[in-house]
Amino acid sequence: MTATEAGTTTTGTFAPRPGAAPLPRMIRAQAALETRMLLRNGEQLLLTVIIPTLLLVLFSAVDIVDTGAGKAVDFLAPGILALAVMSTAFTGQAIATGFERRYGVLKRLAVSPLPRWGLMTAKTCAVLVTEVLQIALLTAVALALGWSPHGNPLTVLLLLLLGTAAFSGLGLLMAGTLKAEATLAAANLVFLLLLVGGGVIVPLAKFPEAARAVLHLLPISALSDGLREVLGHGASVPWSDLGVLAGWAVLGLGAAAKFFRWE
């Protein structure tokens, strides 16, 4: 390089220019990375896709639990959709985020140009993409088993979004306050307890009346009952179930925002 050429190498000649990328591009890139990591994780796929699908097929084909009048799949399909949302937004996200926090991944991402709320937005986008794939698969399987859904798709979408917000807040709260091993154990335990007592497979009418009053206030019960009212009975808007989900969403996300520790 000649002296003249060297003298012309001043600021503004680097390509691409150094500095942070635009915020929407950073969020998209992080969301794509989070989605790939989620879909490549065999344990996560077992929890979020395979288990709900097997439960839907097994309990629809074999008369194990009395689901009341009508086809078993008509009762089970909405509950399994709710279970899929919980498995991704709560259980899977809590475990993955808890171990990212333990290994220092969140600490390093927190000092990158991507703001912390941008990282949480990217994680939420990854959860939503995974849920779309789950719901498409489970719906196809349920339709093949003879499911006949009804109701307004917009109401179903609203229920799913509120359910995702509620479970995401609770999952992030758990991941941001407990140790990774404790999060792993607690998230799986809660998953099993809500699978049995959340109206997913066993109707809440089978439980004692005193227990029913409490179980109806759980987010999984509100989501499964709301989806069942709309998809099974053609209800317009299940306001009580929406109210329960909205309450859990506000409490969970608010508590996660306040108490989440990045290290």
Automatic annotation (TrEMBL):
It is a multi-pass membrane protein. The chain crosses the membrane at residues 45-65, 77-99, 125-148, 154-175, 182-205, 242-260. PROSITE patterns: ABC_TM2 (PS51012). Residues 39-263 form the ABC transmembrane type-2 domain. It holds the Pfam family ABC2_membrane_3. It is found in: Membrane. Keywords: Antibiotic resistance, Membrane, Transmembrane, Transmembrane helix. Signal peptide: none annotated. It comes from the Bacteria. Residues 1-20 are annotated as: Disordered. PANTHER family: NODULATION PROTEIN J. This is ABC transporter permease. It comes from Streptomyces bugieae. The lineage of its organism: Bacteria, Bacillati, Actinomycetota, Actinomycetes, Kitasatosporales.
